């Protein structure tokens, strides 16, 4: 886990091992989308392919970037992630290239993105030839950057919301997969992930007394239990001191 403002590592175990990130990659998907579009801009759903977790977008639907981001970050919608990639100048490949360029810009040296969703296997459950990987430390640094964006910060703390297309005729009920929201003191996000191959993943974020802690668990069998313990430990075992300049 790291401290939000200083990025000081409070506790790390195998934090530089490259692992499958599952849907935690959607934090980068959101950042690249916001680099390209204003939240009020409208995108068209070009194609719909059912990819497990989705917000049930309809082909031809016109929906704001903001509402797509809610789908992406609240209900971890794969279809929303694909709409961003398909609408990006140059299409899906260019979007993924932008994800990797941003990882490079942020010095996330142990990270590679293969797609905007975090899906890592084919229909038979076999690992894709090109798949995303990251490290817990890289993910925590990515989360710290994402939390500086107020739009993302608000969305990842949302437990449930209903969004609509621009006509208001198509609605999408979104429920956050993060079971710790409303249960752990000060918890405000951040992103879940799960695939058969990646196991349980969770980037956690909590604020208490104005201090913020980011936690990352990957390849877990109890992401919520482990995250709750990590966050409680981080706040109870550390004190924040203002260092006075020596001159």
Brief account:
This protein has helices at 26-36, 65-74, 78-87, 91-105, 136-146, 150-156, 223-237; strands spanning 2-3, 42-44, 62-64, 160-164, 171-175, 187-195, 199-208, 211-220.
Description:
With 247 residues, the protein is of the alpha+beta class. Helices cover 32% and strands 19% of the residues. The protein has helices at 26-36, 65-74, 78-87, 91-105, 136-146, 150-156, 223-237; strands spanning 2-3, 42-44, 62-64, 160-164, 171-175, 187-195, 199-208, 211-220. The strands form three sheets. The protein has a four-stranded antiparallel β-sheet with strand order 1-8-7-6, sandwiched between helices. The chain starts with a strand and ends in a 10-residue tail after the last helix. 45% of the residues are buried.
Give the N-terminus to C-terminus distance in angstroms.
32 Å
Please identify the structural class as seen in this structure: alpha+beta
Percent range of helical residues: 25-40%
Residue-averaged pLDDT? 92
Strand content: 15-25%
Task: Note the overall shape.
Answer: globular
Over all CA atoms, what is the radius of gyration? 18 Å
Poorly predicted tracts of residues: none
Count of DSSP strands: 8
Q: Please, how many helices?
A: 7
Instruction: Kindly report the spatial arrangement of strands forming the biggest sheet.
Output: 1-8-7-6
Major β-sheet annotation: 4 strands, antiparallel
Helix-strand pattern: EHEEHHHHHEEEEEH
Q: Layout of helices and strands, plus pairs?
A:
Blueprint: E1 2-3, H1 26-36, E2 42-44, E3 62-64, H2 65-74, H3 78-87, H4 91-105, H5 136-146, H6 150-156, E4 160-164, E5 171-175, E6 187-195, E7 199-208, E8 211-220, H7 223-237
Antiparallel strand pairs: 1-8, 2-3, 4-5, 6-7, 7-8
Helix pairs in contact: 1-2, 1-4, 2-3, 2-6, 3-4
């Amino acid at each position: 886990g790291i401290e939000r403002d200083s990025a000081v590592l409070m506790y790390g175990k195998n934090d530089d091992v490259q692992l499958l990130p599952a849907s935690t990659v959607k934090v980068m998907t959101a950042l690249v989308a916001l680099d390209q579009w204003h939240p009020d801009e409208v995108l068209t759903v070009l194609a719909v392919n059912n990819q497990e977790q989705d917000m049930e977008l309809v082909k031809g639907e016109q929906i704001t970037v903001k509402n797509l981001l809610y789908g992406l970050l609240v209900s971890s919608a794969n279809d929303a992630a694909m709409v961003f990639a398909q609408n990006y100048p140059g299409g899906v490949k260019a979007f993924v290239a932008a994800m990797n360029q941003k990882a490079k810009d942020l010095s996330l040296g142990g990270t590679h993105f293969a797609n905007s969703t975090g899906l890592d296997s084919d229909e038979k459950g076999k690992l894709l030839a090109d798949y995303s990987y990251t490290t817990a430390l890289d993910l925590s640094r990515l989360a710290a950057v994402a939390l500086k964006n107020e739009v993302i910060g608000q969305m990842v703390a949302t437990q449930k919301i209903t969004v609509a297309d621009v006509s208001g005729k198509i609605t999408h009920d979104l429920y956050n997969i993060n079971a710790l929201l409303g249960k752990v003191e000060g918890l405000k996000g951040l992103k879940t992930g799960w695939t058969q191959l990646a196991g349980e993943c969770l980037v956690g974020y909590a604020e208490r007394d104005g201090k913020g802690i980011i936690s990352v668990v990957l390849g877990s069998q109890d992401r919520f239990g482990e995250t709750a313990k990590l966050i409680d430990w981080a706040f109870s075992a550390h004190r924040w001191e203002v260092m006075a300049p020596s001159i």
